[in-house]
Amino acid sequence: MTTVSARRRSLLRAVVATAGAFLLALVLFQTLVWQQGQERQHQERERVVEHAASLRSRLDTGLSSTLYLANGLVALIRGVDNPTPTQYRGALRALHDADPRVRNIGLAPDNRIAYVHPLEGNEKAIGLRLDNQKDQWPSVRRAIESRSSVVAGPVDLVQGGRGIIHRTPVFLEDGDYWGMISIVIDIPRLLDYVGLAPEVDGIRYWLLGDADGSGGRGRLAGQGDVPADAVSMPISLPGASWQLLAAPVDGWRPQAGYVWTWRLAGLVLAGLVAWVVWLLIRANQRHRAMAGAMQRLNDELVMKNTELTQLSRHDGLTGLSNRRHFDDVYAKAWARAWRQRRAIHVLIIDFDNFKAINDRYGHVAGDACLIGGAAAIRRAVGRGEDLVARSGGEEFAVVIENADAAAVDLLAERIRREVAAALIDAPGQLEPLSLTASIGVAGAVPNGPDGGADLYREADGALYRAKRQGRNRVCWAESRG
Ligand SMILES: Nc1nc2c(ncn2[C@@H]2O[C@H](COP(=O)(O)OP(=O)(O)OP(=O)(O)O)[C@@H](O)[C@H]2O)c(=O)[nH]1
To answer: Residue 389's pLDDT band (boundaries 50, 70, 90)?
Structure first.
């Protein structure tokens, strides 16, 4: 169950992390797409502004070169004393022919049109009084009042069609008003010269002029509605202000197809990022799970080893050290005592008439007595650092370091009493059992590193004597240490 829920949890963590990575990557890529769109819009605006500026510059050039013509005519009127009609017509022709954008030029002394070139097609204009032209009079009056040129238009021309009219008032040397010079500029030819069409290089253009010279708007070029976000460039002309407007044919924003392609690409990339994140997380989780399993196996192994070591060192019945462990520890204790020139004592304890216990109460009860007797020995020894071992069937051994003979003697006696006092509950027995022990003791200050076995033998000899002397007693070896 734990494994299943742990798997579910790690799967859930991987799903959440992957979803997070996907969303993050998606937001990042979509932001990049959006930024790129903004950048494209910016670039497109710069392109349109640059293109429109070059058109405006050509428009300025085209108009001003045409308008300079009027200055020549003003010079003629002022300079020549009473010019003849032939001289006027000659000058008008020359000026008209000099500029292909000029549709016709008219002279209106005292505001009455007297000369027009070319006459053909403009006959209707001859004799007209400018102050009778409701549409055109405001611009004429403005030119006279301001004593300077005024560009008006587009206006409907008396002789038909529409045009831009450049009016220059002529004042004589004495300051008297002589009349008006009107140069009609042909709009299509002007636009052709400028290169201004409704659509150029993917950009739509509109050119708005003063309709009547009084601030109203007349369209000189362009089709359809002008978008509110079109680039607007003012064109300042004498007495008038035009406006050149431009906007991309497909609008400022990148095309929907383009945007969606990049959005889709962002989605796919975010998916790829999420997939890589998923693979990495799962690989990491598998690695960690394996490392965890390895760790658990290792811990188990260490535990088993500890158990094995414990088993290999201890007696399974009494829990005391076994003979092999006793031999190891005793050899080390002996060497230590030799190095430190201190006394070491060995006690060998043997339960008395144990065969009779076995025979009388059975082997299981005998085992219980062994366990109870061993516990009594352990209790009596007390100090944990003193080695207590089961050295044989019903025989036990104790090693005492750092103690003098008197203390050891007391200890041996305490062991004997503790064993004799123990009341042992044995399986199948109504009454507690008891037993006694005979103890042989030997002690020495080692005179070499390997004399442990001799001391043990001496203790064993002392035990033998204790048995012979009637059991349940402590006997010291002859060479009492
Ligand atoms: N129940 C039980 N008996 C054991 C165990 N190990 C040894 N014995 C018995 O201990 C008895 C030792 O008997 P003996 O060596 O004759 O000595 P004893 O009867 O104790 O007599 P003395 O030592 O002379 O007092 C034997 O009967 C063994 O079978 C054991 O692990 N469990």
So the answer is: very high
Task: Give the domain extent around 376.
Answer: 323-476
Query: Ligand 1 centroid to 464 CA: how many Å?
Result: 15
What are the pLDDT digits (tens) for 80-113? 777 888 888 888 998 888 888 899 999 999 999 9
Average pLDDT over residues 435-442: 98
Protein residue with least CA distance to atom 28, ligand 1: 355
Distance 322 CA to ligand 1 centre (A): 17
Atom of ligand 1 nearest to the CA of 366: 1
- The atom number, within ligand 1, closest to the CA of 317 reads 31
- Strand stretches in 335-456, DSSP E: 344-351, 387-390, 395-401, 437-444
Is residue 13 within 6 Å of ligand 1 at its C-beta?
Answer: no
Catalytic annotation present for 394: yes
Domain membership of residue 216 (yes or no) is: yes
Angle at 416 (CA atoms; ends 413, 418), nearest 5 degrees: 105
Q: Give the domain-ending residue among 248, 279, 300.
A: 248
pLDDT in the model for residue 263 = 86
Q: Is 393 in the pocket of ligand 1 (CB under 6 A)?
A: yes
What b/e string do you get for 358-370 counting C-beta neighbours within 10 Å, with b at 16 or more? Answer: beebeeebbebbb
Q: How far is the CA of 481 from the centre of ligand 1 (A)?
A: 30
How far is Cα 396 from Cα 370, in angstroms, rounded to an integer? 10
- SS3 string of 46-113? HHHHHHHHHHHHHHHHHHHHHHHHHHHHHHHHHHCCCCCHHHHHHHHHHHHHHCCCEEEEEEEECCEC
Mean pLDDT of 433-459: 94
- The pLDDT assigned to 438 comes to 98
Q: How high does pLDDT run on average in the chain?
A: 90
pTM of the complete model: 0.54
The domain boundary residue, chosen from 248, 273, 297: 248
Distance 157 CA to ligand 1 centre (A): 148
Q: Considering only CA atoms, which residue is closest to atom 8 of ligand 1? A: 393
For ligand 1, whether the C-beta of 315 sits within 6 Å is: no
Provide the number of structural domains found in the chain: 2
Give Cα 11 distance to the centre of its chain.
22
Q: Is residue 370 part of a domain?
A: yes
- 148: which 2 tokens? 């300077």
Q: 366 in ligand 1 pocket by Cβ < 6 Å?
A: yes
